[in-house]
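User: Hello, can you help with two protein structures?

Assistant: Certainly.
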Amino acid sequence: QVQLVESGGGLVQAGGSLRLSCAASGRTFAVYVAGWFRQAPGKEREFVATITPSGTYTYYDDSVKGRFTISRDNAKNTEYLQMNALKPEDTAVYYCAAGTSGPITTMTSARKYDYWGQGTQVTVSS
């Protein structure tokens, strides 16, 4: 079992930045692919970014590419999502997730992830 707890959400103006953190406990976090998803009101949960267990490779949804950066520190059992140039359409509850390793381009599906955090709200005002 892996327990995940997100932090760092909040209210920010368009163009601003936020950094989300996800602290893992339980089994060794370093063996899992880590990802971020988001869910806006009335919409399905959607993929944002993912990172391989070693942190070598990352993959992003086109909507955030160039603005968001996913990273991890396995020594601290923590993954991060640095979000820059935020837009009102980025408003959502953001979830971190951990899953068994697979080809990174296939890790865009929520079904690939076994463990989830409780979510943190990000609101971007125009």
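That covers the first. Now for the second protein you mentioned:
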Amino acid sequence: QVQLVESGGGLVQAGGSLRLSCAASGRTFSTYAMGWFRQAPGKEREFVAAISFSWNGGSTNYAESVKGRFTISRDSAKNTVYLQMNSLKPEDTAVYYCAASTSRPPIVRRGQYDYWGQGTQVTVSS
């Protein structure tokens, strides 16, 4: 069992930045690939970014809509994964969820993830 707790969401103006954090507890953090998804009102939950197992070099994947603006990273010493979000746009407004997966990369589908956090709200004003 893995418990995930997100933090760092909030209200920011367009063009601004936020850094989301996801603290993991439970089984060994390095054995899980980690991902971020988001869900806007009235829309399905969509993939944002993923990072593979620490021992596998931590390769990353990004949704096309966030490439060049968002960066996912992980700190195994702190059992934490981050999502640095720059140049935010109003269309980035959503609840952001952290998730853990035992699947091998690429891990871009919701069904590949085993554990989910409760989510953190990100609102970008125009």
